[in-house]
Amino acid sequence: MLFIERSGTDPYFNLAAEEYFFRNYKEDDVIMLWRNMPSVIIGKHQNPYREINFSYVKENNLPVIRRITGGGTVYHDPGNINFTFIRSLTAPYTIDYDKFLQPVMTILNRLQIPCERSGKSDLTVHQRKISGNSQHLFRNRVLHHGTLLYSTDLQNLHHALVNNSSRYTDKSIRSNPVPVANISKFLVDPPSVETFQQRLAEEIIRSFSPILRVPLRASDEKAIHALSAQKYQTWEWNFGYSPSYQVKVEFTAQGNQIKAVIPVRNGIVQKIHIFEPAPATRWSELFKQMEGLKHEEQSILQYLDAHPELTSNLEMTHQDFVKALF
Description:
This protein is of the alpha+beta class. The chain has two domains: 239 residues, BirA Bifunctional Protein, domain 2, CATH 3.30.930; 79 residues, 2-Layer Sandwich (Enolase-like, domain 1). The strands form three sheets. It has an eight-stranded mixed sheet with strand order 7-8-9-10-6-2-1-12, with helices on both faces. Strands 11, 13, 14, 15 and 16 form a five-stranded antiparallel sheet that branches. Strands 4-3-5 form a three-stranded mixed sheet, sandwiched between helices. β8 and β9 form a beta hairpin. α1 crosses α7 and α4 crosses α6. 36% of the residues are buried.
């Protein structure tokens, strides 16, 4: 088993690293500890517009990145420690959280953290969630990863993940918000997050011995950067991969109430259904021209700026119109 050490906090790179080692290190089991800069990480089968506070995320320049495992949306920052186990299984090949959560609980208990299992994949201390976990299974290989809230900015966490999703209709996996807490709050004399991560690493190595502690190889780092650029930094993966959805649009312009439903498939706007005003209006032409565009603020704004005739005399700025679509 390899304990691969890396200290970078680029969230795109770190998520790409998990997939890279999962796909390419087929002869070795792998363990990693890592932290990210502030970012929002969504599950593979989620619609980010239903899971995040889109305005807050945009205003604070938080990356929104899709991972290859299922489950709900989480907030990462340097106060959150992520752990990753990549292992080969013996038949039957099934999702099994006990195999990974029990060792983590044992390690945390040795570090004076009285955690317990809650639900399918959470760890709690005094009924407050400190860890969420998810898995990805392919043939005989499993990737299990989880969060450990140590000194995360919980105010930013709540702001980023509180959303108003009532306008969206889809079959995506929904997050299950629960009360959370930082591990440091349960320690009498909490060390820094860096020191705690080091102690955690030492306990992991002790628990999974024999284990080889190795640095990230230059060739692997180069390949991970390539995967990050080709997949994890792209709109197509992070937003376009979302399950099909519909969004209800309602706003007032020129004294009229505008109502429409925008279907989106693979991130692309489909034929828009207009309810008010009557379809034979300049609004219907505007909505028709949106079909085939990305359901993305910047793409729609760029199109409207290039075709000002579509919005002339509508008494509404492009920015206000686009804001109503999300």
